[in-house]
Amino acid sequence: MTEFLRNGGRAAHQLRPVRITRGYTIHAEGSVLIEFGNTKVLCTASVEEKVPGHKKGSGEGWVTAEYGMLPRATHTRSDREAARGKQSGRTQEIQRLIGRSLRAVFDLKKLGERTIHLDCDVLQADGGTRTAAITGAFVAAQDAVNTLLASGKLSATPITQPVAAISVGIVGGTPLLDLEYTEDAACDTDMNVVMTGAGHFVEVQGTAEGVAFTRAEMDALLGLAEKGIVELMALQQQSLSKYELLPQME
Amino acid sequence: MTEFLRNGGRAAHQLRPVRITRGYTIHAEGSVLIEFGNTKVLCTASVEEKVPGHKKGSGEGWVTAEYGMLPRATHTRSDREAARGKQSGRTQEIQRLIGRSLRAVFDLKKLGERTIHLDCDVLQADGGTRTAAITGAFVAAQDAVNTLLASGKLSATPITQPVAAISVGIVGGTPLLDLEYTEDAACDTDMNVVMTGAGHFVEVQGTAEGVAFTRAEMDALLGLAEKGIVELMALQQQSLSKYELLPQME
Amino acid sequence: MTEFLRNGGRAAHQLRPVRITRGYTIHAEGSVLIEFGNTKVLCTASVEEKVPGHKKGSGEGWVTAEYGMLPRATHTRSDREAARGKQSGRTQEIQRLIGRSLRAVFDLKKLGERTIHLDCDVLQADGGTRTAAITGAFVAAQDAVNTLLASGKLSATPITQPVAAISVGIVGGTPLLDLEYTEDAACDTDMNVVMTGAGHFVEVQGTAEGVAFTRAEMDALLGLAEKGIVELMALQQQSLSKYELLPQME
Amino acid sequence: MTEFLRNGGRAAHQLRPVRITRGYTIHAEGSVLIEFGNTKVLCTASVEEKVPGHKKGSGEGWVTAEYGMLPRATHTRSDREAARGKQSGRTQEIQRLIGRSLRAVFDLKKLGERTIHLDCDVLQADGGTRTAAITGAFVAAQDAVNTLLASGKLSATPITQPVAAISVGIVGGTPLLDLEYTEDAACDTDMNVVMTGAGHFVEVQGTAEGVAFTRAEMDALLGLAEKGIVELMALQQQSLSKYELLPQME
Amino acid sequence: MTEFLRNGGRAAHQLRPVRITRGYTIHAEGSVLIEFGNTKVLCTASVEEKVPGHKKGSGEGWVTAEYGMLPRATHTRSDREAARGKQSGRTQEIQRLIGRSLRAVFDLKKLGERTIHLDCDVLQADGGTRTAAITGAFVAAQDAVNTLLASGKLSATPITQPVAAISVGIVGGTPLLDLEYTEDAACDTDMNVVMTGAGHFVEVQGTAEGVAFTRAEMDALLGLAEKGIVELMALQQQSLSKYELLPQME
Amino acid sequence: MTEFLRNGGRAAHQLRPVRITRGYTIHAEGSVLIEFGNTKVLCTASVEEKVPGHKKGSGEGWVTAEYGMLPRATHTRSDREAARGKQSGRTQEIQRLIGRSLRAVFDLKKLGERTIHLDCDVLQADGGTRTAAITGAFVAAQDAVNTLLASGKLSATPITQPVAAISVGIVGGTPLLDLEYTEDAACDTDMNVVMTGAGHFVEVQGTAEGVAFTRAEMDALLGLAEKGIVELMALQQQSLSKYELLPQME
């Protein structure tokens, strides 16, 4: 079992360069371009002063996500979902995952009867788009909450802690952190892990693409993921503190 | 942290009564009614002598699954998906999971250029429908393969090993095996685990519904799941040997 | 014109064995598995305490039906309508027929502003699915009404009389009662007849599949149908009286 | 039981004025405007030199129909089906009926591997649109066949006999021929009858809108329908002979 | 550059014979068959006493249009949009154009909170269907307004001036007025022009089908269009005054 | 009639700052971010080595476009078209316009039997998205053609000349070049003009939003548009020559 050689000499336990750009577009309450290497996802957070039917009159808010991929975000062009007239199963799976992950760190009662829509659109794909989307959506959601705090619509933050996500996988017997596309295509096991700032799991989704994986392999992957998520949260924090883009409530 | 009281005095690590009825309907190559307590899923396996586009000319076969729920399988009636004109995200997620799980134990080259369609239709729901579907679909797939072997269309089985699935979760601090509906609705963490006969993981999907879960909790849940799946595989084996419904190849 | 030989030595004017199982599933207010030989249809009746738009504020209730067939209920697998994204013309025709037939024996004013949804799902098909569905749906509707009476939501039954249905047809010159699939495929004329307990017609739908039919043939078919429906109503009555499943109002 | 008073002093057994205009539009191989009183349906027959999948390579042709209603053909505007994105159950039921009725008088083998599409579009509705459509579609189909004969694409007609249709119903106890809209809305029983030139039935579709109907009432309705259809066939014949629009084969 | 020879010896700057038939169908508040040579479009105006969501509570009304083509309005049959389940891009473009054109001559405040639906259905197509539709829809809208005035629902007309439309194009170097189908198919430039009674432009849509067009060509086309529209407005006026179909307010 | 004051002191006849970034994403054969002030559109050109049905066997290629807008590209979030299950009429109108505009400068015979897909996705909207899309799509198409030339798949360019587009409009009586959103919302007349490098028109689409426009106003707008397009073409040229991103054929 020789170690798999990664692009650019990346180590097995190393994240790709991560870049988080806040204020990437001007209209949304939160707008973040997140890059995991060549994967680029634009995450916007839009505040709407109403809730879907199942929350009406509950005093609680809602956080929901949609995911899309530009037709030529990928190596070969894929059909535009709007033109085909429906979202694929994969798209729906991913947007449900993003929504659940973000709701896990929101106190919906404190949000009040309003909705935060998180739109995660992949401009360029190279593996890990759903984990980049969750990690970037948290920053966008934080900016949207900051806007609500600054405008006095909220007096206390409904966000309980940070959330971030990373993919891990086993390629040629080696557990790798943050798979890029060629690794993802070659891997036997692919796992997406979502964790909170407290170091607990929100989602663990492991799939054997080739041979099934053992408990020991699973343990190794969870360890790698934990390491990566700690690093991502530091980057989220750094990004959110950087430019003081938005005035804060005291 | 007192132990949660389960219906019928069931222990935390105990499966509900499982019943596997082969030959439940007459037309399909494999037709299995599987019951996990009050959850009843009809799993049929249909053999089609052609493959979808992405497998044409590959010499390989395909195994795919569809999932549905009768409108009044549940406590309150839900809309019929055929009438609404689309399958929900949940439905698509589940049928993709069933398909991946079954393909994990198939050698598609040995199957030859044909498709096995697994239709899993929930007649009555009380939690765990997707895990019952995977467990039952394996038995139906085995019967369909037996038909192909008996007719001489296949000379060796393309099935490499059994596959089964179970849900586990944490309710009120207690890890429970095989959640029924009321437990599922109350749980903090819900995990679906799919394993092979060799004791390896095909899929692990853990979701924090309420508070996020720790690594220790995850370990406890995986242990419980492993125990349950070993028992399910014994029941699959027993069911497949019981009536010698179909002539076997030597 | 020699008499057509039927499966199992069935006489031309003979029904297949009919079995009506009440309480087949646990959640619905009425749940009936009806079997006409190898044809098996699960009919559930669900009570909803509201009415569709065109009945709002009218003081009247509504009775409506939906029909579906599991993909492998038939000899060869047919596409899942939910996956194709629409119900076929045949499905819509059948569910409209079931709805009209049941409404013919309901006093909608006495039902009050609530809806009874009848879901008829074919688990196994061998001809006559729509007539089995109507006959079984009546029993399910009766159980749902009994539930409403028992709970005090209704003080008098809105059901005015029983309704049942049967198919008849001419195969090789012989009028046959209750066609099974092979007979249906071979017949020149196919007629579905729906009648009330008073012996009157609710629906007569005759179709020449091959050569057109004469008035004399039509008369013969109507006579056969009448005979069959009288027998079906006796079986409905027997089934409803059997287990006293539900407490009755005096 | 006093006789129902009909518009314009029409007798119970009397058709509305029927007008059949051939060559109503210029592009179609057959184009007929048929009027039953205020009901106006444009029936076009289009020949296509290929067949649908289930007839490919069979040496047989196909005859199929589509039905539509202009949004303001009716008293109050109804939604445009193309805008809503689907055809109603009623529309599908009617177009299936028209297709079956026309196929009943076609020898598909003699038609050869080509399709005749019958488009029946209601310009103005006042009851009886489906029966007018069938009656007019036959004339359009005859013109299309004449075109094929004249061009030498066919050497013998595939049409075996005429087909026509009429509605009958019971209003206030009186059996009426050819219901107009207000009669249709008021009737207890509504029956559509399709017959061939030989006086045999192709379709009989009777529906109790209010109280169920007796065998005697059914007999009376069938008699009325037969009378009306004989008259319609005379009008079809007269129309087809009138202008010698198309050269005939000897 | 020799002058293109038009059917029937029509001059380059000459309209086809235009016929406007009011009261073509009986149910709609306005119903006009407009013919530009062989192009025949049925335009109905339906009044609905409510407005779409974006106008609710505004005190303003709405004018909207839908466009359709019967499947065999054209040389070869095209698919029925209702059967395909969606309107083509071309259809949507045209109906949006008709709607905008009519709204340009309506004072929506004076219309009050009601909607006028303009349905333009092409019975026979030979080029210029959208311009015929706009020209005919204006007459239908005027009739609908007259109905509202006559019934006292309106006390003053919300129509500010007439509107009409014509196509122009360059074929073989010659600017032509009112293109028929064969000209439209052969032309290099195709322009649809919508003008008001005051001689101003509501819409100008010029498209180079083959080679791009010069400013001088554009000027020539606009001049031709202006001439044609003046003639169309005289015909609209003549048609509206002709039979005094509807009582007028003084 | 005082001159309308534009943002940032922009003159009536002045373009917003235009930025064209080639190679914006890595997978597409051409990938261009074009900015007209705050309007940002990502235009990718994808080469596919096959053609749609209507071009099969013709020896000719095809150029087609799709257009989309990210949900929060706009001031308030709009529904995601993929989630709603269909593209709006506006979207279809725009993508048809882009496709026609680009085909106007392509010699499809020289392109050979392959398709160039132009995907224009609006990341941020502030008026003029369709004109930015056309202008940017040309640069992306040129890069895709350069790729085909460089790889030897084409030996001569199928592009006959440049194409670009701009919006013009009348706001408060003043003709303005390159409308931004607030101007577009306020304008009486809105015109989109597409021109070739030879200074000829490909498309002229003028719409009176408020009062209809005169011939003189139209002339003024066309003059402004021509000026703007000449400037845009200089910027296209400059961008394409800038980095010599792709090797050229001699």
TrEMBL record, chains A, B, C, D, E, F:
<feature type="domain" description="Exoribonuclease phosphorolytic">
    <location>
        <begin position="14"/>
        <end position="144"/>
    </location>
</feature>
<keyword id="KW-0819">tRNA processing</keyword>
<dbReference type="InterPro" id="IPR027408">
    <property type="entry name" value="PNPase/RNase_PH_dom_sf"/>
</dbReference>
<comment type="subunit">
    <text>Homohexameric ring arranged as a trimer of dimers.</text>
</comment>
<keyword id="KW-0694">RNA-binding</keyword>
<dbReference type="Pfam" id="PF03725">
    <property type="entry name" value="RNase_PH_C"/>
</dbReference>
<dbReference type="InterPro" id="IPR001247">
    <property type="entry name" value="ExoRNase_PH_dom1"/>
</dbReference>
<dbReference type="InterPro" id="IPR002381">
    <property type="entry name" value="RNase_PH_bac-type"/>
</dbReference>
<comment type="function">
    <text>Phosphorolytic 3'-5' exoribonuclease that plays an important role in tRNA 3'-end maturation. Removes nucleotide residues following the 3'-CCA terminus of tRNAs; can also add nucleotides to the ends of RNA molecules by using nucleoside diphosphates as substrates, but this may not be physiologically important. Probably plays a role in initiation of 16S rRNA degradation (leading to ribosome degradation) during starvation.</text>
</comment>
<feature type="binding site">
    <location>
        <begin position="128"/>
        <end position="130"/>
    </location>
    <ligand>
        <name>phosphate</name>
    </ligand>
</feature>
<dbReference type="InterPro" id="IPR050080">
    <property type="entry name" value="RNase_PH"/>
</dbReference>
<dbReference type="InterPro" id="IPR020568">
    <property type="entry name" value="Ribosomal_Su5_D2-typ_SF"/>
</dbReference>
<feature type="domain" description="Exoribonuclease phosphorolytic">
    <location>
        <begin position="162"/>
        <end position="228"/>
    </location>
</feature>
<dbReference type="InterPro" id="IPR015847">
    <property type="entry name" value="ExoRNase_PH_dom2"/>
</dbReference>
<keyword id="KW-0548">Nucleotidyltransferase</keyword>
<comment type="similarity">
    <text>Belongs to the RNase PH family.</text>
</comment>
<keyword id="KW-0820">tRNA-binding</keyword>
<keyword id="KW-0698">rRNA processing</keyword>
<dbReference type="InterPro" id="IPR018336">
    <property type="entry name" value="RNase_PH_CS"/>
</dbReference>
<feature type="binding site">
    <location>
        <position position="90"/>
    </location>
    <ligand>
        <name>phosphate</name>
    </ligand>
</feature>
<dbReference type="InterPro" id="IPR036345">
    <property type="entry name" value="ExoRNase_PH_dom2_sf"/>
</dbReference>
<keyword id="KW-0808">Transferase</keyword>
<dbReference type="GO" id="GO:0009022">
    <property type="term" value="F:tRNA nucleotidyltransferase activity"/>
</dbReference>
<protein>
    <recommendedName>
        <fullName>Ribonuclease PH</fullName>
        <ecNumber>2.7.7.56</ecNumber>
    </recommendedName>
</protein>
<dbReference type="Pfam" id="PF01138">
    <property type="entry name" value="RNase_PH"/>
</dbReference>
